[in-house]
Structures are given as structure tokens and as C-alpha cells.
Amino acid sequence: MKVNEKRKLFGVTMRKRSWNNVLVYVILIIMFVFWYVAPPMKEVDETVSEPSSEIGLIPDDGTLATIEMPDLMLKRDNGEWQCANECRLTNQQISGVVTHWLSIKMTPVDVQATDKITDVSLSFNDGNTARVELYASPYLILRLPNQQQNFKIENLHVSQLLGR
Questions:
Q1: Residue 24, domain extent
Q2: pLDDT of 36 higher than 70
Q3: Largest alpha-carbon pair distance within the chain?
């Protein structure tokens, strides 16, 4: 063995290859210690951590009077929901559709909505109206065209909103 192949550190003489192995193991031990002493920070999903970001479509103080879609018009008459035109829905299905519209929970998103399903017009007892659009892609999206804002519907499926 040649002299320039050996290294001496703190009185210990080893070959270069042996010192390289020692350095590798020391670095691995240091990494292991830091991994368990101070684990890396995990990214937090904003939608899970902030349940307050979910909002409802219809305010609590607003009383919904009509829900109008191209093939269905539901109207509240004497506190009971009925079809204003001929429809194939039973009274139970009508109340289900209305309940689903009243219970929509949505989250603002910044995605482009595609595959438009339908336009829906909502009228309230105070004379206000709102027009919304439903889209199917990339997931169920409700769009407020006057505000140019898209919302992901969190708790419902399109068939529940359209009565199909």
C-alpha cells in the first residue's frame, strides 16, 4: 500500500476508501436524526383546513319563490312547491329538488368551466332574481355570469339539482 493512499484523522489511520465509507455513514446518521427530530413540514390542503370557505348559494334571509330551468319551472304557492308547467316529477321529487337548491354548498375556484349543462333562473319574494349556469367539467361547477365567478359544488350531483 502506498503512503498517499492512507489518511490519518484523530490518530486513526485508514485508507481513502474506508474514510469515504465512514463519511457516507456519518451523513446518513445525521440525515436520519434530523428526519425524526425535525420532520419536514407537510403541505396543508386549503379546502380541508378552511371549512369556512364553503358558502351557500341562497342567503338565509332570502326566500326563494321560483326555480326556472328550460324544461322545468318550480313555483312556491301558499308555502308549497309545485310545477308551474307540466312536469313529470312527483311532489316528493319536487320538494327534493328545492331542498337541494337550498342546501348547495360551494367553494370559489379559478378553473375554466366547460360542458355547459343548463341555465337556471332563481327568483325571490323580494323581487330579486339570479341567473346561474351549471357546467359539467372538470367537475360540477356553478357559474354566476354577472360576477364572472365560478364555484365548485361540494355536496350535490347534477341529477339532484335538475330532478332527473
A1: 3-37
A2: yes
A3: 104
The answer to whether residues 30 and 58 belong to one domain is no
- pTM given for the model: 0.63
Amino acid in the structure at residue 113: A
Q: Are 133 and 86 contained in the same domain?
A: yes
C-alpha cell at 16: 481513502
Cell of 20: 469515504
Does residue 28 have a pLDDT over 90? Answer: yes
Q: How many domains, the chain?
A: 2
Using one digit for the tens of pLDDT, what is the confidence trace for 123-143?
888 888 889 998 988 888 888
55 and 111 share one domain: yes
pLDDT-derived band at 42 (thresholds 50, 70, 90) equals: low
28 in any annotated domain: yes
Cα 16 to Cα 8, 10, 56, 79, 86: the distances in Å are 10, 15, 69, 89, 90
44 occurs within a structural domain: no
Judge contact between 67 and 81, C-beta under 8 A.
Answer: no
Residue 55 is assigned to a structural domain of this protein = yes
* Alpha-helical runs (H) found in 5-148: 16-37, 46-49, 91-102
